[in-house]
Amino acid sequence: MTSRWPWLRLCLWCAAAVVVEVALFVSYRGHDARFHWFTHFFVGASVALVGMALVVRRRRRPVGYPLVWLLLAHLVAMFPDVLFVGDEAHARWMDVFLGHISTHFVPGRNVTWYVVFLAALGLYLVALNGIRGDDARTGPTGLRVRRWGEGRPVLFLHGLGASSRYWDNLAAHRSGYEGIAPDLLGFGRSAKPRRAAYDVDSHLEALRSLLEPGTLVVGHSTGAILAAALAAAPPVPLAGVVLIGLPAYPDAATARQEIGRLGLLARLTVTRNPLGWVICTLMCALRPLAVVVGPMLIRDLPPAVVADGVRHSWPSYSRTLQRVVVDHRSRPDLAAARIRVRLVHGTDDREAPIAYAREAAAAASRSGAPVTFQEVHSDHHAAVRTPKTVAAVLDSILATETTESHV
Amino acid sequence: MTSAVAPPRKLVLVWVAAAVFFGSLLAVARAAEGPLDDTDPALQRPGFLDAGALPIPASNVTDDVPTPGRRSVVFFTRPDRLGRLCHAVGSHDFDDEVDVVIVVSGTDGRCAGGTRVLTDPATTRAERYGMREPRGGGAAVGYAVVDADGLVRYRTLDPAIHDELGEVDTILEALK
Q1: Where are the alpha helices (DSSP H) in A60-93?
Q2: What is the Cα–Cα distance from B88 to A27, expressed in whole angstroms?
Q3: Domain at B159, CATH number
Q4: Range of B135's domain?
Q5: Measured on CA atoms in the order A34, B29, B44, A106, is the torsion positive or negative?
Q6: Is the pLDDT confidence value at A6 over 50?
Q7: Smallest CA–CA distance from A63 into chain B, residue
Q8: Which CATH superfamily is domain A141-406 in?
């Protein structure tokens, strides 16, 4: 029921929070101690609101279930009263529960806390108002989009566990085009709906509004799989597709085997081991720390790329890996390509071995698809390691397109 | 897919609505306080020890209360409420090492259950214990708890103490 009406689920949470608060108020009233409810509610709610404001500022999106935040903070603040009912007298150490003792003795008492609560609420609402621009930038698709330059539109699709900042090195070699780089659905600062399928269709559906006629699409790794799917069935006439580090595994078993070699989390995810969920959830919980520490530990990628490597959710990561990288085959997409496709592949690519991409390109070419293959001296991250080379590829394709359109 | 942020006007409306709702609730709760409640509700039945100006040395209510080495509870009440308190205290099982005295702000008073009652029409004993005057004025209605060292560790106005003697046990237990 709740999956059909998600708003109902939200309101059930709200209703539960309100019912519990009313019950608490009545309970205090029964003990002729309503002032306790006000003190601890105002204090708890104020702490929660300040915390919510900080989260909103950091994550650039509203927090979920705000009333539940308030309720939980109130429960923490009033916990010594539960102990008192259980025959435990109040003592000074109980100030650890959001100042349970001392808050009764500030000048002005509950009126003061009422003012503090209103100030904290104002802070939270100001923080919400501050992300209005971001919300507009994500637009109806929920994608955060970065743009640079002017000219022909070039859409950049990053890989798994990355973000639009993956293209920063390439953007530094800007040429005569308008770069359009979204954070894919579920990654970076884009929306991460829990119930999204995160398969090829849902990712492409989210990207649809960014595609305009004449766009050149550039994809890396998982983004290259999506770009290849676009080449097979472009929703609008596209200028072409560039696939960097395409994981063109011949079948799902090979995909699982190859991905399993890359790391623990990837292996656990493709083998559907519950431990993968535990690790990913832990990483998400420690995200603020990982964002800071990650770039110190992983030195061979730009700090921004490493920091954004943890900006995803378990559903977005696991489903995209399983449904896009493992289950979806790019070879038929390449064979069915109706627009020009250029594969750019690093000779030392460990994540997506070059042999598979070379075979896929050759097979597509044999079947008459306009697919070409280009090797570059790089690993999986050609756009990061050799941005000049990739920029030159884009320039050459765009120049060809321009010449052809003039002809 | 993203949670849309409400327009500024609605955010202001949320703030104003919260201010009005909680302000009204606070005012109603304050207005609902009875005449025997404390003028500062924070000091009424909070249940914590050594708060505010406490502890202070307890003055003698009788010759043997407080007695060094024994804990004491001194109830303060008014003549019209004495019967209920006597009944409650008489039927309550206090610790053997606790002395219980009721101070009534009248000229006459006795408890059927044998609990000691002292008359104090001038409320001087209540003043010595630092009991506050209720909102409606007049004699204090509440209690003070004295520890084995003769220090007042807890005092509160409590017009409903006859129904909440378990709270006194909690305070006494903490002072063992």
Answers
A1: 66-85
A2: 22
A3: 3.40.30.10
A4: 41-174
A5: positive
A6: no
A7: B3
A8: Alpha/Beta hydrolase fold, catalytic domain (3.40.50.1820)
